[in-house]
Amino acid sequence: MAVGQVFNMARQDDIYIELVLLNHGAFSATVDPEWDANPYNSANGGPCDTPQCFATDPQAKQYFQRRLRYIAARWDIQPIYWIGNGGMKKTGRRSNLRNWRPGSRT
């Protein structure tokens, strides 16, 4: 079953889906580390030298905004809210992400 079908079926039955786009390991160098393979990592061509940069770098935020817009348009998702920092306390730098929103300036 394709993702679009899942969203359509959920919409028909008035079911809400919590779609997790980021896991803590993607932005951690210590807990379940996946930073080495992260596309935001400058070693992979991304804009960030450290995982913490993701929450503050304007280019990284712009890339993530584009990703959110694509996902919302691709599957016609009408989000009630976006959770951008689930599990981020495991990265050791949750303070950078606590109040972060894709369109925020912090």
Can you put this structure into words, describing what you see?
This protein is mainly alpha-helical and 106 residues long. It has one domain (3-97). It contains 3 helices and no strands. The protein has helices at residues 3-12, 58-74, 94-97. The longest helix has 17 residues, at 58-74. It is elongated and about 45 Å long. The N and C termini lie far apart (38 Å). 15% of the residues are buried. The mean pLDDT is 79.
Summarize the structure.
By secondary structure, this protein is mainly α. The chain has one domain (3-97). The chain is built from three helices and no strands.
Number of strands: 0
Percentage of residues in DSSP E strands: under 5%
Molecular shape:
elongated
Radius of gyration, CA atoms, in whole angstroms: 15 Å
H/E series:
HHH
Alpha-beta content class: mainly alpha
> What helical percentage do the residues reach?
25-40%
Q: What's the number of structural domains?
A: 1
Q: Averaging pLDDT over every residue, what do you get? A: 79
Biggest beta sheet attributes:
none
Tell me the span between the first and last alpha carbons.
38 Å
